[in-house]
Amino acid sequence: MTSFDPTDPVDPRAFDAVVGSERSADLDAGLDTDPALAAAVLELETHAASEGWGQPARLYALVDTALLAAQAPGLAAAMGLDEDDAAGSLTPVEQDELPGDVSFESAVAEIAWPPQVAGCAATLERLVLPPEVDPEIPADPTAAAEFARSHPLRQEVRMVVGVTRAGAAYCALRMRSHDDEHSVVGGTDLVPGLVQLLSTTFDDSTFDDEEQDT
């Protein structure tokens, strides 16, 4: 199982871009980014920002908007989607709240999406430390989490990460200390551990095994 630990590093470029002297809206500008996925992730980031900090982790299925409009026209209408929205876009559909008695990693590891789901995304908050602190972080996960919580250079960050069944990924990060839309940093692999974890939910063999068990 791919491991995503709360103390896993965020790409140092993201930290530097937000709290450093120069900021960048997209650290992967010019690279091969899936525009539909990036748009969906940024939409979720804006929605999460409107709800404020201290929110629980959330998981979303990303569905091809044209497919959603064709198969569930009532739902599409209720969401305010029209033909213009449907062309080459992904619609986030929020899933049930993740159980509070298990870790985010454990909950996501149990998920296998049906074929009609084109991608998925997650929003969660965590603490990050600047790259120069990495050598001081304890190896024990519990001690590392406590180290991060008490460190004077800690930064609260909201991560919105999306992946597609086809293998694309996009991340959007916002620091609480720079809580404005112009300081949101985007890139394809800013949180590699979370990208990998979400990607495992599209292991077709896992979905096939679950179907056989039902």
From TrEMBL:
Q: Show the InterPro entries listed in the entry.
A: PPA1309-like
Which domain of life, per UniProt? Answer: Bacteria
> Could you tell me what this protein is called?
Uncharacterized protein
